[in-house]
């Protein structure tokens, strides 16, 4: 497992990372993240003397979150086909993209963030064995 996969496992997916960097206070997950990251932390932060370990972790998660998005969207474009729209019943003869029929657009064609996060998570899982 690489770092991204380990973090996704601890946070229970991309939406979990997003919740944490947006202030979700989950001490159980923070403990696991501390275990994972503490060797990378400066000593003073590790001991909570010169800084707050949770803040350090949050910054790191923010960085990882954006790295994940950059990685995925460097190879994938968000497909705006109607089959991705909530409530739409589109039948394809050939797929429009890797996620044909997967709903991540709401009725106003706005992207549903948590569905998109799930999609990104699936994309990472599907592609981890294809990387050279
Ligand atoms: Zn489609
Ligand atoms: Zn599509």
Helix count, DSSP H or I runs of 4 or more residues:
6
User: How many β-strands, per DSSP?
Assistant: 0
The overall pLDDT, averaged over residues, is 92
- Number of folding domains? 2
Query: What is the CA-atom radius of gyration, in angstroms?
Result: 18 Å
Strand count, sense and barrel status of the largest sheet are: none
Outline the structure in words.
The structure is a single chain. With 132 residues, the chain is mostly helical. The chain folds into two domains: 1-75, no CATH class; 78-132, no CATH class. 53% of the residues lie in helices and 0% in strands. The chain contains six helices and no strands. The longest helix is centred in the middle third of the chain and has 23 residues, at 53-75. The protein is elongated. The mean pLDDT is 92. The structure holds zinc ion (2 copies). One zinc ion binds next to loops.
Task: Summarize the entry for a quick read.
The protein is an all-alpha fold and 132 residues long. The chain has 6 helices and no strands.
List keywords for this structure.
6 helices, binds zinc ion, mainly alpha, 132 residues
Q: What is this structure's SSE topology?
A:
Layout: H1 3-11, H2 14-21, H3 27-37, H4 43-46, H5 53-75, H6 113-127
Helix pairs in contact: 2-5
Bound molecules: zinc ion (2 copies).
């Amino acid at each position: 497992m690489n770092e991204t996969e380990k973090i996704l496992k601890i946070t229970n997916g991309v939406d979990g990372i997003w919740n944490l960097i947006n202030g979700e206070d989950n001490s159980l997950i923070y403990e696991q993240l501390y275990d994972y990251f503490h060797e990378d932390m400066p000593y003073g932060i590790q001991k909570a003397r010169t800084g707050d370990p949770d803040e350090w972790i949050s910054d790191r998660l923010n960085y990882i979150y954006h790295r994940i998005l950059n990685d995925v969207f460097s190879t994938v474009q968000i497909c705006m086909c109607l089959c991705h729209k909530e409530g739409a019943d589109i039948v394809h003869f050939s797929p429009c993209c890797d996620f044909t029929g997967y709903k991540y657009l709401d009725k106003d064609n706005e992207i549903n963030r948590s569905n998109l996060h799930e999609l990104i998570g699936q994309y990472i899982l599907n592609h981890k064995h294809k990387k050279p």
